[in-house]
Amino acid sequence: MSKRIAKLAGVAAVLFAVTAFAQTPQQVSQCREQNNKSFGELVSIIQKEESAGNIPKPELSNLSRHLDRITESLNKSGQTMTECQATGRYMDNLRSEVQRITGPVVQCRAQNQKARLELVQMFQNARSAGNISPDEAQSYESLEQRLNAMAENLNRDGLTLPECRQFSYEINSVRSNVQRMAATPASPGADPQLAQCRAQNSREHGEAAQLLQRAIAGNNIRSDQANVFSRNLNSIAGNLNKNNLTLPECQQITRDIANIRSSISQMAPTSGQEMSLPQCRADNWKAHNEASNFMQQARSAGKIGQPQGQAFAEMNNRLAGIGQNLNRGNLTLPECQRITHDIADVRSDALNLSMVSDPQLAQCYTQNQKDHSALVQLIQQAHRAGKLKPQDYADMDRRLAGIGQALNSGYLRLPQCQQAITRDIANIRSGLQMRGIH
Fold first, then answer.
1. pTM of the predicted model, to two decimals?
2. pLDDT digits (tens, 9 = 90+) for 177-233
3. DSSP states of 378-406 as a string?
4. CA 179: distance to chain centroid?
5. H or E segment at 262?
6. How many Å from the N-terminal Cα to the C-terminal Cα in the chain?
7. Which residues contact 279 (CB under 8 A, 6 or more apart)?
8. Which of 181, 304, 381, 385 could bridge 299 with an S-S bond, Cβ 3.0-4.6 Å?
């Protein structure tokens, strides 16, 4: 409990005690007595919600300022009936504001805590029924760690509604995994390589979801970008939990998750205060190996032709140099963080190089870049001409910025280009046409 709120609770008690002796007309005295009682109740409500961690610090500070104003009004001598009634309405409005702040968070927190306990029970029931194989049990250990981390975060003071809703998404993702495990009896003849791939992807998917949640909680990523990553992770979870998943599909999911994790790290890097040098070095080695694998796969698939051989060799040399820097014993954290961007640049260049030999992706990329640039110019002209409301312009600008990030992320793949990005561009264009903007 903040000292400020506690002090106001004492003020409320004193005010209530002395009201009966105020030298005012009877009607005003009754009004002031009711206001002092309501003030004490309001302070008590805020104390309770604060103790439960349902009020973020910025909101708590704002509420404290409102309470200070009410205290000044309650202490005012010679208060008129009009002033007394205005103070009462002010407290009613503040009570409604407290409910607005805490209501959705309390409900979301309770729902998530209930869903988490149900998931734990679901797995225990499936294991008792013999439906959990040893590989699935190992995979669940990773899921259980995520659930335990969620429990700690859900009980954390100052939990915000966006954070709580992100936990809802994570719980739904875990639920899909547990439901898949519980759906079929343990099969001793299952492909061990597929089971290992699935378990590894489950762990990587959970880490990607946690990385996204931290980015959201730290306000390091725009909401439209977060929504894109959430949809992609949700789609991956659905594919990962298919009963007829094949090993090649599972291996592709491994690459997709790695690409998403890398993209989130680049778009919302962890601050120097939160990231340690060993963690940065480990993340960069992972991204370095992924970039190297991507380039080798592109060459094996025939996407790097003879004309691109020299450029491909230069990229390999850049990666080798990055590896030498990562191995330096005197590497500093700022240097390590710059290497993160260097690896992303190599990956982006490798993708552009592979598109030279992938005409479908190159054509899709070129067309979407052209359409994207035209839409950016169109909304800017419409905004300057007053044809777009400021909120509509800001929304479209954010969406187009997200599309630009995806196009230039260095991890563009043909299905994403042909489906998600093309569709998003078409939706924005339709929104403009509905407003008579062409």
1. 0.32
2. 777 666 655 554 556 667 767 777 777 777 787 777 777 766 667 767 777 787 788
3. HHHHHHHTT-S-HHHHHHHHHHHHHHHHH
4. 24
5. helix 247-267
6. 56
7. none
8. 304
